[in-house]
Amino acid sequence: MPTFHRVAVIWGGPSREREVSSRSGKRVSNALRARGHEVVEIELTPELPFDLRKARVEAVFIAVHGKGGEDGKLQGLLEIMGIPYTGSGVLASALSMNKIFCKKLWEKENIPTPLYQEIKKDHFLEDVKKGIKKLGLPLVVKPVAEGSSLGVEMVEKEEQVLPAVQRISEEFGEVFLEEYIKGKEITVGLLGEGNTLRALPVLELAPQGNFYDYQAKYTPGMTEFIIPADLPAETYRISQEIAIKAHKILSCRSFSRVDIIVRKDIPYVHDLNTVPGLTDISDLPAQAEAAGISYNDLIEEILSYAACNKF
């Protein structure tokens, strides 16, 4: 793998995860500087192509979470410009951002995932009724293409489902209903490319609330980290194997984080993040640390795979 000397760290953008992106970007920049790289911090704006040309960088470290940075758009621009970048490519990024596409692909490959009901804009009432009958209550209402659990809401009463769908749809666009699975929330970080791809220690998340929502993720003290996760050895191993399979099915590259709920020793995959948080309280760095990988080494390894992404 080539060594990149001058690197741009791109952060920000229009996503609701902008604040987290800013925190990730700053910490990534500090890590790269500590490892001897010359770093240019660039905010994601419409001026990005001009800013990148002016900066004359050799590679880009993407620290933009959510729409605009994690959905293939930024990746496509960088490929057209011929600039190597970190993380997954255009197709994998776009697929991973769309939870319905993920589920359909995972189901086809026999990866357990919570049952779901698509909601079409012209058939809200009909699809909601189908969803309640199919999934039971409580159930979860989710945006189709958002990260960090933004817009996710658990609904316990039948009369609350349609208003929640309408409200979340107005704010986030497409939504769907998902089976509520009560169990242990775990996450599996993946790192590497090709034969070096491996699962990091499994992290169990014990949030103070009902589930691992945006507040629980990014507020210090709101979630207890248990690492390694308190799971039977076989369930632990299967969770790691399923995470790797979910990553490969979507053609992801270099690193990701796979979110899973374990019920009765069965891991159900419900989300995959191609640009997971890299802040001081994020999951992936905690898993890397448990594997004996320092934060600076984690960032250096992720950057080393950037050469895989070049048009």
- DSSP summary: helix tally: 11
> What is the H/E order?
EHEHEHHHEHEEHEEEEHEHEEHH
Q: Give Rg in angstroms.
A: 19 Å
What is the level-2 CATH architecture name of the largest domain? 2-Layer Sandwich
Q: Low-confidence parts, pLDDT < 50 over ≥5 residues? A: none
Large-scale geometry: globular
The largest sheet, given as strand count, sense and whether it forms a barrel, is: 6 strands, antiparallel
Give me the CATH superfamily of the largest domain: ATP-grasp fold, B domain
Average pLDDT taken over every residue: 92
Beta-strand content estimate: 15-25%
The secondary structure category is alpha+beta
Helix content: 25-40%
Q: What's the CATH C level of the largest domain?
A: Alpha Beta
Number of domains: 3
**What is the fold-level CATH name, i.e. the topology of the largest domain?**
D-amino Acid Aminotransferase, Chain A, domain 1
The total of beta strands comes to: 13
Taking the alpha carbons of the first and last residues, their distance comes to 17 Å
Overview of this protein structure:
- The protein is an alpha+beta fold.
- It folds into 3 domains: 6-87, Rossmann fold, CATH 3.40.50.20; 95-112 and 182-293, 2-Layer Sandwich (D-amino Acid Aminotransferase, Chain A, domain 1); 116-179, 2-Layer Sandwich (Dna Ligase, domain 1), CATH 3.30.1490.20.
- 38% of the residues lie in helices and 23% in strands.
- The chain has 11 helices and 13 strands.
- It has helices at 18-34, 48-55, 73-81, 90-97, 99-108, 124-135, 158-172, 214-218, 233-249, 283-290, 295-304; strands at 6-12, 38-44, 59-62, 116-118, 139-143, 153-155, 175-179, 184-191, 198-199, 203-207, 223-226, 255-263, 266-273.
- Strands 8, 9, 10, 11, 12 and 13 form a 6-stranded antiparallel beta sheet that branches. Strands 4-7-5-6 form a 4-stranded antiparallel beta sheet, covered by helices on one side. The chain has a 3-stranded parallel beta sheet with strand order 2-1-3, sandwiched between helices.
- β1 (6-12), α1 and β2 form a beta-alpha-beta unit.
- The two termini are 17 Å apart.
- The mean pLDDT is 92.
